[in-house]
Amino acid sequence: MLFLFDIDHTLLKTSGLGRSIMLEAGLAMLGREIRIDTLDFAGRLDPLILSDLLTMNGVEATPQTLDCMRTHYVERMTLAIESSGRIEALGGAHRLVDALERVEGATLGVLTGNYAPTGLAKLRAAGWDPGRFRISVWGDEAPGLPPTRNQLPGVAIERYLALHGRAVAGERVVVIGDTIHDVACAKAHGCRSVAVATGAFTVDELASAGADLVLDSLEPTEDIALEIMGWMTSPTG
User: Fold this and answer.
1) Which tens digit of pLDDT belongs to each residue from 112-143?
2) Domain of 99: which CATH number?
3) Is 79 helix (H, G, I), strand (E, B) or coil?
4) 116-127 burial by CB neighbour count: b if 16+ within 10 A, else e?
5) Residue 181, SS3 per DSSP
6) Residues 127, 79: one domain?
7) How many domains does the chain have?
8) Of 198, 185, 125, 200, which Cα lies nearest the Cα of 150?
9) pTM of this prediction exceeds 0.85
């Protein structure tokens, strides 16, 4: 079994820190204030967000400009995460991670649009040892052109094989996230999905996207864990 957690608005909240740091990074790179008012963040890969940011502000998104923007953003964001005190675990998240970690044969992972340095810093700031998540797939690790979130579960499944020396079937993989993109990437690989309405999407929107389980929060930890384990022990699970 493989349980893959999204980070932002699923495990923790950053209270808008990412947006403010992107403004700072843009100013540092371009020497002028930038706009991000129409930039879509929810459930997207950081490289795509930064590409859109550059284009929106009249800069061609080339490998060179993206690398420069990434450097400015990651350095500032990592420092801000460590010093701001604005990162906070969401209700029930620690308990759910603990509960699923105790399941015999389970492997925990993160599957996120974050770059690795910022994602790891967020986990630590919210009270998790990142080493508990034995499989990590980050926003710049989608193998396709163009990269998409739908490609990330395939990377996680490959890493499970490399870690354990055996494959894991899609139906024994659960993606836990807060956006329709988390649901879509799970469905693309035949995985199960738990969607929690603690981000930009409502319960109805997440249900319409086809999530296997939709929740207002991760607070009913025992019920969530029991539901997931029911999938794993069912004839089709």
Assistant:
1) 999 999 999 999 999 999 999 999 999 999 99
2) 3.40.50.1000
3) helix
4) bbbbbbbbebbe
5) helix
6) no
7) 2
8) 185
9) yes
